[in-house]
Amino acid sequence: MPRITFISADGTQLDVEATEGQTLMAAAVAHGIEEIAAECGGACACGTCHCYIEASQLALLPPADEAETAMIECVIDPRPESRLSCQVKLTAAQDGLVVHLPASQH
Amino acid sequence: MPHLTAPAEASEEGFNFAPLDPAFAADPYAAYARLRARDGLTYFADFDIHLASRFEDVSAIVMDKTMVRSLDGLVPPEEIVAQQRAANWHDMPHHSRFVQFSLLDSDGEVHDRLRKAVFRLFTPAMVARLRDDIQAYVTRLLDRLLDQRDIDFVEDLAAEVPGHIIGRLIGVPDEDCPKLRIWSENIVQFFDIDRSDARKQIAETATTEFYEYLSALKADRLKALRADLISELIKAEAAGQFSEDEFISTCMLILMAGHGSTIDVLGSGMHCLLKFPDQAARLKADPALLPTAVQEMFRYESPLPFFHRYATEDVTIAGTPYPRGTKFGLLYGAANRDPSAFEAADRFDVGRKPNRHLAFGGGAHFCLGNHLARLDMEIIFGSLLARTRAIELADPAVTYKRGLSVRGPKRLDLRLVPA
Question: In this model, does residue B149 exceed pLDDT 90?
Answer without folding.
Answer: yes
